[in-house]
Amino acid sequence: MTVMMLSCFKATELIEKRQLTPLGVVDLLRLHMHTMMCDACRMYEKQSKIITTALHSELHMNRSAVHVSDESANTLIEKILTEEK
Amino acid sequence: MLSWATKRTSNQHIAEDLVQETFLIAAEKYSSFRRESEPKTWLFGILNLKIAEFYRSKKRTHESHVDIDEFSDLFFSEDGKWKQSAAPTVWEDVDTHLFDDQLFVEIFEQCLGSLPNTWNQSLTAKFFSEKTTEQICQELGISITNYWQLIHRAKLKMRSCLEQQWFRKNR
Description:
The complex is a heterodimer.
Chain A: H1 8-18, H2 25-37, H3 39-67, H4 71-84
Helix pairs in contact in A: 1-2, 1-3, 2-3
Chain B: H1 2-9, H2 12-29, H3 39-60, H4 68-75, H5 102-113, H6 117-128, H7 133-140, H8 144-167
Helix pairs in contact in B: 1-2, 2-3, 5-8, 6-7, 6-8
């Protein structure tokens, strides 16, 4: 039984890992067992996903503001100019 | 087994992990155990392989990062449980409008900016580019295990920063 017990430290690490890659069966089971019993880690999982979403929305904002700067911007301007004619 | 692993790795947490993994492997491979040796010898054989593996991976990863014990002390007690002062509390009023709130975005960026460089990069690289995990690790010069740890630490820091700077103040 003790083999199946995760610490909150390990559980939160698996929560992060899970968002980027599928977990193995053993880890998944251990994580489920832990979050079932641990309110703090359940809350952590929810909030971690909120941060991920926030990072994604940051990405969209920065893309439109900063990312279009080099060659793609030039071709874009050219396109707009030719369309205007 | 634990005291043996602790002696070999001189780290209680790592030793615990290795012994745990040993038992998981043993449970998985039990059918292939031919009973030619004592179960104890067999288990220690697996444990020693795990210890060797740990030292190999340690050699590969850069050791320039914050010591994991030192960092986890900020949020977790010795047995790996949340410290009462660091445990997540309820975040109220979270919906999609939150990300349009200019003040929130500012605080979010402040928190992101306060992270050490490699943490910030490991966290944002995944979202700001379509690179694979392997490519990101190669660019940052870290192992994949190290990458999870960085993401984990960066997220823990971000979470507590947002909680302190935004969610607690806005009540």
